[in-house]
């Protein structure tokens, strides 16, 4: 039955991916002020180096006619002179070959743009996820074993305060306190590397990397710690009420052994349920405002700027990667359930 469930899920991956990607494509087309309007606004008010787009436009005193000619030229360059369903078909064919196209405004490959931003997002996401799990799981177990005690009450107060404050506010507070914002200047204000990074020794680069990363990661960990800690605590508390715990104690095992050998493995199931979504945050998660505050040029910031600029290939390319990763990681999360606990039965789980 387990193999049948896996086959069903694999069979659903492609149509699910197709439907979600199609919805994103058509929703982007409905946004007011598309790439053509964005390019026109740029040419008129900001970008002086784009004069080559005026080549081939007939000279006339009618500014409305010039605008119409320029708009038609830009629309043709971006492919917006074609019907929407033709563009949709071309997009799907490109994506089937893992070709994400090129940015409208930079002219660079979307794949290259995403890959160039990945080191920042992976650094921020990986260390945030690792530290969150390393802190939240032991803290959740400690809170459960001292349920109703001082540790449980005090830690809950701080966790829920951190949870209630938006991540970017925490980031700004950390910057003000520890990055030269009026108090201590212990950490750098922006970026992920010092200006002289290339001249540093190997050990110097190692410390410089973590020196820049410390405050952004701390802000993300502080914001995301509460949910996993409470989840772990409640899961462990629930296991304490099970009959097998009393049996293990009666057989001579102490409290530490019961927690380590029996309660913790059983509690991991519910924690694994959120692992796929946490892994997705390594690629692109709730780190956008942290990237903005600390001037970290990552995938989240790339997607946000592309959306503002109506650079559809970049937005869709990021969504393409995000949807694909999400579907695969959710499937892996379900399979991990079975690996950890063979008692999990998928025979009654519908596709």
TrEMBL record:
UniProt-annotated location(s): Cell membrane
Alphabetically ordered keywords of this record: Cell membrane, Membrane, Transmembrane, Transmembrane helix, Transport
InterPro entries: MetI-like, MetI-like_sf
Top-level taxonomic group: Bacteria
Entry annotated with the keyword Metal-binding: no
Membrane topology per record: Multi-pass membrane protein
Record carries keyword Transmembrane helix: yes
Transmembrane segments: 12-31, 124-145, 157-189, 209-231, 279-302, 314-337
ABC transmembrane type-1 domain location: 118-333
Pfam families: BPD_transp_1
Annotated Gene3D superfamilies: MetI-like
Record-stated family: Belongs to the binding-protein-dependent transport system permease family.
Record protein name field: ABC transporter permease subunit
Lineage: Bacteria, Pseudomonadati, Pseudomonadota, Gammaproteobacteria, Alteromonadales
């Amino acid at each position: 039955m387990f193999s049948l469930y896996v086959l069903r899920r694999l069979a659903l991956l492609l149509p699910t991916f197709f439907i979600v990607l199609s919805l994103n494509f058509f929703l982007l087309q409905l946004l007011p002020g598309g790439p053509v309007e964005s390019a026109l606004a740029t040419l008129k008010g900001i970008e002086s180096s784009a004069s080559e787009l005026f080549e081939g436009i007939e000279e006339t005193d009618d500014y409305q006619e010039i605008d119409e000619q320029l708009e038609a030229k830009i629309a043709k360059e971006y492919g917006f002179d074609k019907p929407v369903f033709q563009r949709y078909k071309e997009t799907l064919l490109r994506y089937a070959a893992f070709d994400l196209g090129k940015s409208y405004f930079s002219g660079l490959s979307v794949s290259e743009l995403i890959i160039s931003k990945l080191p920042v997002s992976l650094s921020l996401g990986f260390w945030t996820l690792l530290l969150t799990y390393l802190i939240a799981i032991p803290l959740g177990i400690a809170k459960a074993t001292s349920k109703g005690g001082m540790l449980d009450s005090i830690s809950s107060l701080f966790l829920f305060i951190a949870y209630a404050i938006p991540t970017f506010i925490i980031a700004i507070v950390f910057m003000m306190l520890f990055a030269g914002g009026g108090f201590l200047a212990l950490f750098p204000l922006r970026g992920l590397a010092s200006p002289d990074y290339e001249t540093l020794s190997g050990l110097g680069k190692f410390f410089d990397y973590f020196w820049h990363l410390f405050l952004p990661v701390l802000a993300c960990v502080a914001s995301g710690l509460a949910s996993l800690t409470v989840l772990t605590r409640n899961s462990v508390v629930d296991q304490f009420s099970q009959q097998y715990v009393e049996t293990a104690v009666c057989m001579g095992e102490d409290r530490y052994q019961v927690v380590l050998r029996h309660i913790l493995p059983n509690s991991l199931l519910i924690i694994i349920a959120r692992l796929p979504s946490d892994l997705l945050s390594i690629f692109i998660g709730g780190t956008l405002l942290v990237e903005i505050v600390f001037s970290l040029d990552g995938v989240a910031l790339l997607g946000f700027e592309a959306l503002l600029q109506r650079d559809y290939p970049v937005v869709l390319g990021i969504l393409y990667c995000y949807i694909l990763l999400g579907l695969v990681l959710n499937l892996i999360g379900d399979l991990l359930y079975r690996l950890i606990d063979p008692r999990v039965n998928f025979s009654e789980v519908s596709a």
